[in-house]
Design goal:
It is built from 19 helices and 19 strands. It has 621 residues and is an alpha/beta fold. 35% of the residues are buried.
Length: 621
């Protein structure tokens, strides 16, 4: 009995001794020795890895910088993505809420109250200031209460739903005289009569007048004068551009940001090319020598201000031999019984030729010979050290691109914009261009077959709707967010789709925008780390090939990009994203939180790329 008791006691003492030892290492508040022990083990582990790394690196020292930098980049990106996702994921199935009513027409970078607090005034508070507007609200911009899906093209060009745009009755009644004659406000619609020949001074008559003033024998043949694309500054509500589009010209509207009654918003709602922009302080995100004609009809710009610096920006954008058309009754001056030419002192310094004047309309022609600026005449100086892409740079009081190999009179530019000579002019490999175009042609067929159940008139979401006239197309406004050579645009035109494409060249990528514009397409330069200059719900389809990789390489947020895509996409609009598997997987996990319907597709071409086809729902609450 005594022996048994002593044995039990010894066992209890041994267990107590073990528990004391364990408590030394695993107690809730371990002593300093435990931390010192762990730290020692950690340092030994690092030294072992370091010696292994050194022995590995000694075999190929040239690989050290790349391996290390890639490791750091990937690590930083993973950490950033993880922190962003943690911010949104208290649980796996959480979806983003809708924003308040006050953000229905929100355009980031144009936060007027924030700009005023920052000290901007005298109209500068209405300009683009992304460095000030950091108001990230992670919510989905909702459509207005009575928002309706736009009518199909071409009906949607002439009739829009009044609830879809922020245009008050007072603004409608105070619009220009010609605009009032071309618009009709009904109960819940706004109709446009740009093609109505019974209206005096119609857009068609105005276009005929311009054609006659530049010496065209045939009114509709602007191409004979080399005019293929037109930049319409302060376009009103887009009727002039709509008419030019009907004559196979690319007319792009650009107008300043407006809190209400936006010209850009109405133009896009009608299915017409447009973007927010003005050059009262900074250059437009367009390359030099871009457009054949710049048009201003009561566009609200005081061309006489600041020693003609706004005219210098027009000169930068115009191609040699291009036309500048101004219609402005308040700028007409009467001198000795005749109408004098406005801002003549500046046009002479630009080497422009006054072509014609008729009533309130004046036309000038840009010089075709750059030697005018070196001939000893009193002109503006030539810009020096022109490098890089033109992205909201400050306005300059000098003449651009006089030494560019693209300084070619527009009348001498071949109509075959993709000819070998044109490709060589832009430094584009013909084989590379042909391969890219063939890929997009093939891809377009696949895209359209995926979308066709929803973009035709027999879609079950629209019971009772009458079938529209051919081509039954519910996709009109398309944005190629990483356009490269504009092959998506070309493929859509070849397939006879009734669409136009905003070709966006990301900042930092190869600058192919001059080549895109020379093809007669619409396009801008843009930094996708920032919001795009447009209003909410303005595009039917977004195409983004390789854009997620571009965003990641620039250490920008994919989450911010998806939010921006959701903002500018119309309800029931489409997003087609092509990229590497890892980026597509991340995008798919994100778009489900936006309540998008998403489908990932394996291209089965042996690459590590995948296709993500998404549709944005019509959310009201």
């Amino acid at each position: 009995m005594f022996t048994l008791k002593r044995s039990i006691t010894r066992k209890f003492d041994m267990r107590s001794h073990w528990q004391k030892g364990a408590s030394f290492y695993f107690s809730r508040r371990p002593p300093f020795n435990w931390f010192f022990f762990c730290l020692t083990i950690f340092l030994v582990f690092i030294l072992i890895l370091g010696s292994y790394s050194y022995s590995f690196d000694s075999e190929d020292e040239s690989a050290v910088p790349d391996v290390y930098s890639n490791h750091v980049t990937v690590r930083n990106q993973v950490v950033a993505d993880y922190l962003e996702l943690r911010h949104f994921e208290p649980n796996h199935y959480k979806v983003f809420d809708l924003c308040g009513k006050e953000r229905e027409n929100h355009v980031p970078c144009y936060n007027v109250s924030a700009n005023m607090m920052f000290g901007f005034k005298d109209g500068e508070e209405l300009r683009r200031h992304c460095e000030v507007s950091k108001d990230h609200q992670f919510c989905l911009v909702r459509p207005p209460k009575d928002y309706k899906i736009p009518l199909t093209w071409p009906g949607g060009r002439d009739v829009i739903w009044s609830a879809n745009v922020k245009l008050t009755k007072d603004q409608f009644l105070s619009s220009g005289s010609m605009t009032k004659r071309l618009m009709l406000l009904e109960e819940n619609q706004i109709s446009f009569s740009s093609e109505d020949e019974t209206i005096a001074d119609s857009v068609k008559d105005y276009s005929k007048q311009i054609a006659d003033m530049i010496g065209l024998a045939i009114y509709a043949d602007f191409h004979a004068a080399g005019v293929r694309n037109v930049l319409d500054i302060g376009c009103g509500f887009g009727s002039f551009g709509a008419h030019l589009l009907s004559m196979k010209m690319m007319a792009v509207c650009v107008a300043a940001y407006e809190l209400t009654g936006s010209q850009v918003q109405v133009a896009l709602e009608r299915g017409l090319p447009a973007f927010i922009g003005d050059f009262t302080s900074k250059q437009l995100p367009l390359p030099s020598l871009s457009y054949d004609m710049v048009h201003c009809a009561q566009c609200g710009i005081s061309w006489n201000d600041k020693d003609g610096i706004f005219l210098i920006e027009v000169d930068r954008i115009l191609k040699p031999g291009g036309y500048f058309v101004v219609t402005s009754p308040d700028k007409v001056q009467v001198s000795k019984g005749s109408i004098s030419c406005p801002f003549e002192q500046f046009t002479k310094k630009l080497c422009w030729t006054h072509v014609s004047q008729r009533e309130e309309t004046f036309i000038w022609k840009k010089a075709t010979d750059a030697q005018c600026f070196t001939s000893g005449k009193q002109t503006y100086p030539i810009c020096e050290g022109e490098t890089g892409q033109t992205y909201y740079k400050p306005l300059e009081q000098c003449i651009s691109a006089t030494t560019s190999k693209r300084w070619i009179p527009m009348q001498n530019i071949s109509s075959l914009s993709t000819s070998p000579a044109q490709l060589a002019l832009h430094g584009i490999n013909p084989e590379d261009f042909a391969e890219d175009l063939e890929i997009q042609r093939s891809a377009l067929n696949n895209y359209w077959s995926l979308l066709s159940p929803l973009i035709f008139s027999d879609h079950p979401k629209r019971p009772g709707d009458e079938d529209p006239v051919p081509p039954y197309n519910m996709v009109r406004n398309v944005m190629d967010m990483n356009a490269r050579y504009g092959a998506v645009n070309t493929a859509l035109l070849e397939a006879r789709k009734s669409v136009w494409v905003m070709n966006v060249v990301p900042l930092g990528e190869r600058d192919t925008l001059p080549f895109i514009l020379d093809q007669g397409f619409a396009g801008v330069l843009h930094n996708w780390c920032e919001p795009f200059p447009t209003y909410p719900r303005t595009y039917d389809m977004l195409h983004a090939e390789g854009l997620l990789s571009h965003i990641a390489s620039n250490k920008c947020s994919i989450i911010d990009l998806i939010f921006e895509m959701d903002r500018i996409l119309r309800p029931e609009g489409w997003a087609i994203i092509s990229d590497k598997v890892a980026h597509i997987e991340k995008a798919r996990s994100l778009v489900t939180k936006f309540r998008w319907e998403a489908r990932m597709i394996d291209l089965h071409n042996g690459s590590d790329k995948r296709l993500l086809v998404c549709q944005k729902p019509f959310l009201k609450k």
